[in-house]
Write a structure and sequence with these properties.
Blueprint lengths: L1 H21 L5 E3 L7 H9 L3 E3 L9 H12 L6 E6 L6 E18 L2 E14 H24 L13 H14 L10
Parallel strand pairs: 1-2
Antiparallel strand pairs: 3-4, 4-5
Helix pairs in contact: 1-2, 4-5
């Protein structure tokens, strides 16, 4: 695609400039998710260097991530705590948890077949998880409150005459708040 080509033309020439300037291999190139294009990663690895970049969702689908997280959710794999020293207190604080796995990358580079192992990290940020939990809690509270209001009798408020209409209204509420399957309404 034109967008991908544009990013490749940005990263690869810069990588080559750094290599030419430093005249050495075994370098670590750190970039954003755009640097994670397979062609760029293969180019770095083919040159004897390393890379560190986040993979976008286009490279690790929701289904693949769910499969990776399965052993964690079943209690078969314990993620490793990720800690950082707090500059103010000097104490180590947990900022997340994660695990690593390896993928075999096979690709063509400059007409040559290349094969190497790529180490991938799956990380959950504690602050991001807390924000997501808070957001979910708020959506559940709103859905429950709106569902309860369906049975309230007020002057001028239309009552839902059948159970089927009430269930349909509840389903709409749960879908709108993205909590279907998380809230049971009877």
């Amino acid at each position: 695609s034109p967008a991908l080509s544009e990013y490749l033309h940005r990263y690869i020439p810069e990588i080559e400039r750094v290599r030419a300037t430093l005249q050495r291999r075994g370098l670590l190139f750190v970039g954003d998710s755009k640097m994670a294009a397979l062609e760029t990663r293969v180019h770095v690895a083919a040159g004897g260097d390393y890379y560190l970049c986040p993979l976008p969702q286009t490279q690790v689908s929701a289904a693949q991530l769910a499969e990776l997280l399965g052993p964690v959710l079943r209690g078969e794999l314990q993620p490793v705590a990720i800690r950082r020293r707090n500059d103010e207190t000097g104490r180590w604080e947990k900022i997340g948890a994660g695990f690593a796995y390896t993928v075999l990358i096979e690709a063509e580079h400059d007409g040559q077949r290349l094969s190497y192992e790529e180490r991938r990290l799956v990380v959950c940020s504690s602050s991001y998880a807390a924000a997501q939990k808070h957001s979910l809690d708020q959506r559940v509270k709103k859905a429950v409150a709106e569902s309860r209001q369906l049975n309230e009798r007020k002057q001028g408020k239309k009552c839902l005459p059948t159970q089927a209409e009430c269930q349909a209204a509840v389903e709409k509420i749960l879908q709108r708040h993205r909590v279907t399957g998380l809230v049971q309404v009877t």
